[in-house]
Amino acid sequence: MxxxxxxxxxxxxxxxxxxxxxxxxxxxxxxxxxxxxxQGRLTSLTRWLDAQLLTGFSTVFLYDPxxxxxxLRGSAQLxxxxxxxxHASEPWPREPRAAVERxxxxxxxxxxxxxxxxxxxxxxxxxxRGADQILPGGRxxxxxxxxxxxxxxxxxxxxxxxxxxxxxxxxxxxxxxLHPQVAFNPRVARIRVPLPDAQVLGQALAQLRVxxxxxxxxxxxxxxxxxxxxxVSISALQSLxxxxxxxxxxxxxxxxxxxxxxxxEADAADLVEFIDSGRTxxxxxxxxxxxxxxxxxxxxxxxxxxxxxxxxxxxxxxxxTGKTFLVECLAGEAGxxxxxxxxxxxxxxxxxxxxxxxxxxxxxxxxxCIVFIDEADQTLGKRDAGSGxxxxxxxxxxxxxxxxxxxxxxxxxxxxxASSRPDLIEVDLKRPGRVDVKIPLxxxxxxxxxxxxxxxxxxxxxMAPGVEALHKLELPLLLTPGAAEAFAVKAYRLARTxxxxxxxxxxxxxxxxxxxxxxEVLEFQMRIAIAEATDLRFVPASLRPLTTKTxxx
Length: 553
Fold this sequence. Notes:
Layout: H1 9-19, E1 25-30, E2 36-38, E3 41-43, H2 45-52, E4 59-64, E5 68-73, H3 76-84, H4 96-115, E6 124-128, H5 131-134, H6 143-157, E7 166-172, H7 180-183, E8 188-193, H8 198-211, H9 222-228, H10 234-246, H11 253-267, E9 272-275, H12 288-303, E10 312-316, H13 323-334, E11 338-341, H14 351-366, E12 369-373, H15 376-379, H16 392-404, E13 413-419, E14 437-440, H17 447-458, H18 467-471, H19 481-497, H20 502-511, H21 519-532
Parallel strand pairs: 1-7, 1-8, 4-6, 6-7, 10-13, 10-14, 11-12, 12-13
Antiparallel strand pairs: 2-3, 4-5, 9-11
Helix pairs in contact: 4-6, 8-9, 14-16, 17-19, 19-20
């Protein structure tokens, strides 16, 4: 397998596995439907493999469920074998089993010739596109699928296939979508094709500039644009550039951030929401110690000193304490994108696991980013959820736990979980090495705190009277940012419809104020959040006695 030294790492891994004799069968999964730069053009993975890895192979079969079995390259020996068959004039098979058997018969023919001393060694390869369509996972009881999986599995390590210069490539979107008998065969090399990095994107942009010059400004730096576009597939980028070129619209530096957001969300098929925050921690009203801790971590991140950087945070506290808003502020302070996981669960067998694979593929490509999981107690699944979901929660739990604990992600990805019921999150997911810092976000405990929070919210309505003026009023305690915002909206409404002066409207709103969350619920959620805290400095002294109370049954 001759290979350009500048080829991507995954291709070098594949070539090494074949040339060393370690593996002859490869499952390629991940970003397999993208375009790949090749000799001044952008081409499919199949054509890229043929041009970059298989030039030394005299016979290359290609199969896909739509077109059936065909040839990318055929040798004289193959033509001789075909001519000698009784049904040589029949078309090539389209059914997967017949196609697999046709390839196997030819390889057995080659082995017999060599055994008789009549054949030279011939390099043969077969590429199977859409392998997850013909060998789907989750079909363990289907005899036809199982028998076909057994035939394909034989290519990896059984004679005569393993005794020849033979390579088979099974291309699937997601590893978990492929039949486990093949996907997790120890004789198979699993090669993940990642989303393009900045270098590959730079090559693609240079080619797109040549092909569609109308979409590019003359002074645009492709390297800067490539850095801004990490996490975007070349296919999505190509579509954007073609559309802009057709409409004579020039893409500039200011377009790339918005383009990235749109392209990432489109590629992820509504599995994630891309949040590019313009806020900072200055916009979040919180105790000084909390902001100081987060800013110290961000400083470590910027300086590349990742040994003291947490793998993840858990923001916990009663409803309305601004957990999601804090994540946006943290991302804006750090200057990195936020990837918010949406509903990746699917009713089809294997689809949920496949959706997670897509998300992880995107996370790895983005570079530095924050992965945000809201309502983590509901989203992350359970180690053992019983038989009600056929083990789905357990499988999702295992995949997420493994990804969160990947040490290679330290300094690249920070996981942020948010929950008002952290006690329902599996203990293993909250352990150090996955979530190193657990921060309780708590309501106000003093009049000064309530006045400061409320004044910050009233500024948004241009009616903040100042902390001192508010402190003279009888403000409620245990006020959350959500409750304070609702209070500010009510005061603003009174000021606009009264009309009343701002301070009078605030005082009138206090007269019949009703807490939005029942006191017993609020206290329970505060107690479990405080119990999770990794450092009591995050907990006001007045609330620390709650750590000694036993939660209700």
